[in-house]
Amino acid sequence: MTYTVTKVVEWGKTMTKHAVSSVRTTKYYILLIVLVIISISTIIASFAIGYYSIPIKDILTLIFKGEKYVPSNVAIIIKRIRFPRIIAAFMIGAGLSVAGASYQGMFKNPLVSPDILGVSTGAGLGAALAIILDYPNFMIQIMAFILGIIVVFIAYLIGTRTKYRQEISLILAGTMLGTLCSSFITLIKYLADPYEKLPAITYWLMGSLAKVNNQALLFSLLPMILGTILLYLLRWRLNILTLNDEEAEAIGINPKRVRLIAIIGATLISASSVCLGGIIGWVGLMIPHLTRGLVGADYRKSLPISFLMGGTFLLIMDNLARTLYAMEIPLGVLTSLLGAPFFIVLIIRGGRQ
Amino acid sequence: MLEVKHLSGGYGKKQILHDISFSLTPGTVMGILGPNGCGKTTLLRMLLRTLNKQAGVISFNGKDIDLLNRNELAKHFAYIPQRDSVAFPYTVFEMVLMGRTAHFNSLSTPSRNDIQFTYDILEKLNICQLADTIYSKLSGGERQLVLIARALCQDTDVLIMDEPTSSLDYKNQKLIIDAMKLAAKTGKYVLFTTHSPSEPFLIANQVLLLKEGRMVGFGSPNEILTSATLEQVYSIPMDVHSITNIKNQEIKLCLPIY
Which end of chain A has less neighbouring CB within 10 Å, N or C? Predict the structure, then answer.
């Protein structure tokens, strides 16, 4: 029953050669390249689709030769109408997926979406307030952005009052504040003028990219890119954050600080997404799931893949929203129609495992 | 030298551990024994500084660990939890690679050297074949080995293990014990908690006996683990048997008398 040590080795001294890049890594790079190609071609193709169809030839001419070589009305449609909308759709989908992936990891829960801390309902309340106060369009966006951030900030302050298991109290605080905001929204809708304000609020909350213009895009793009870069820089630490806080600390990170930075990044993305396109659900929940299925949980791989898949997915959805029917279908409705069945499948599959 | 002097601590205002002192030399394997709630895990937490102490000093090679930041501390102390907390499909390799985190800049990712180091650790523990397996699909024993690999990957001086052999079958227990011995042979300090008083005789050269947060004894297993002290700690009569196994090796067994 005595155990003898058969092998005595000095740790780290013997450095034998290994095949460092495994099959998984190669697979990842192939997928990445394929997705980059798909994303770019979807973006280009999206310029052609719409009420006024534009031949691909014209689009390529405009990109590579300049606008002088295409008819002026085509150039205007491409630059002023389709460009902001297409970039917004892609960036919102990409950003929400990255934010969702980060939140799922740090809350250790694959069913969490980017609005878990109340950013969307907060922004919705901001927009509803701005609409009922008769503010101009850009103020609606600013109010949405600011209130979204304020709600997350309050949720963070409440959630981090507890010393242990902060993830749970953060989720609870966020959900409660979200409920609070949606009751205020309902109250505002109830009090709003039913002929003008009520439809405006309702329409805003449905989520749509119909009103995106270059000015709105410029305002939202900066925080979105900033948030995405922040989360990308944290990609390795996000892996550690999926462990419980005690293990993460022992591994050498400060989980509370990393979590705060990740929340800031994800909130910048979600708040600017909401103020651009209203509440567009499900993307941030679905895409990270599909990504994990393809490349695994490691954020070094899953963040770039989520970005590309989410962007392409929402862009296709928005193309459908504006072409499927004579009247535009709200984008938020379309993603929910796809998202809810996806969620059900997820639950059933999870139950089987 | 790992030194603990007059350490006290607990949760909030509640004090659980009172005046714990011991010192260890490199290559020591120390078993921490005591009934449920005696403060074993609390002690581990204070050593890892995931729980703040109320009084006393913990020093490593003469330096107070309070003066180290998280990152530096993680280069000295590694933790092997009893239960893991993985909600996502990480591969074994990715799990073990996480141990390298303290060795690179906070915004960068593991380098080629970190990856090489990780492969070497997997090889030394003989679990290379598991590298691409999803961690959460492993058996309990394999998981424990992976967590040990992660801690070894952290390249620390001290390994802190919370009940490493509990809930494992005999074969897996042997694997874990071999890994612990291997670590001690290379000059690491190995601290572990256990509920089996016979276990320290197999692996440990030091034992810390706790009851209700106070030290009952500290020393070699033979000198500390006697039926008198064990009865005092566990509050039931205990026998310490010395027997010879079929390989003619002398072993000690602690058995309660019901």
Answer: C
In angstroms, the Cα distances linking A125 to A118, A145, A212 are 11, 10, 20
Q: Are A121 and A287 in contact (CB under 8 A)?
A: no
CA distance B232 to A138: 75
Is pLDDT of B28 > 90?
A: yes
Range 106-165 of B in CB contact (< 8 A) with A: 106-110, 112, 115-117, 119-121, 123-124, 131-132, 150, 152, 154-155, 160
How many structural domains is chain B composed of?
1
Number of other CB atoms surrounding residue A24 within 10 Å: 16
Question: Which residues on B lie below 8 Å from A300 (Cβ)?
Answer: 109
How much is the pTM?
A: 0.90
* CB-count exposure of residue A93 (10 Å: 0-12, 13-18, 19+): buried
- Phi and psi (nearest 5°) for B218? -145, 125
What is the sign, positive or negative, of the torsion defined by CA atoms of B191, B196, B197, B198?
Answer: negative
Q: Which two tokens stand for residue A269?
A: 């993305």
- What does the block give as tokens for A256? 């509370």
CA A69, distance to chain mean position in Å, is: 37
For residue A115, which of A107, A103, A105 has the smallest C-alpha distance?
A103
- What is the C-alpha to C-alpha distance for residues A333 and A208, in angstroms, rounded to an integer? 9
Residue A327 CB neighbours (<10 A): 6
pLDDT tens digits along B88-134: 999 999 999 999 999 998 888 999 999 999 999 999 898 999 998 99
| Lookup result for tokens 């009893």 | B82
Nearest CB to B185 within list A8, A18, A242: A8
Here the CATH number for the domain that contains residue B233 is 3.40.50.300
- For A78, half-sphere exposure in the C-beta direction (CA atoms, 13 angstrom radius) is 23
pLDDT in tens, A74-124: 888 888 889 999 999 999 999 999 999 999 999 998 888 998 999 999 999
Domain assignment of residue B36, given as a range: 2-256
Residues A28-54, mean pLDDT to the nearest whole number: 93
Query: What are the structural domains of chain A?
Result: 90-341 (1.10.3470.10)
Residue A100 near residue A285 (C-beta atoms within 8 A): yes
Q: What is the rounded distance in angstroms from the CA atom of residue A11 to the CA atom of residue A14?
A: 7
Is B71 in the A-facing interface, judged by CB distances under 8 Å? yes
CA dist A241 and A260 (Å) reads 11
> According to DSSP H, which parts of chain A are helical?
23-48, 56-64, 72-76, 83-106, 119-132, 137-159, 166-191, 197-206, 214-233, 235-241, 245-251, 255-277, 283-295, 299-323, 331-352
Q: Which residue of A has its CA nearest to B45?
A: A246
Cα atoms in the 13 Å half-sphere on the side-chain side of B160: 24
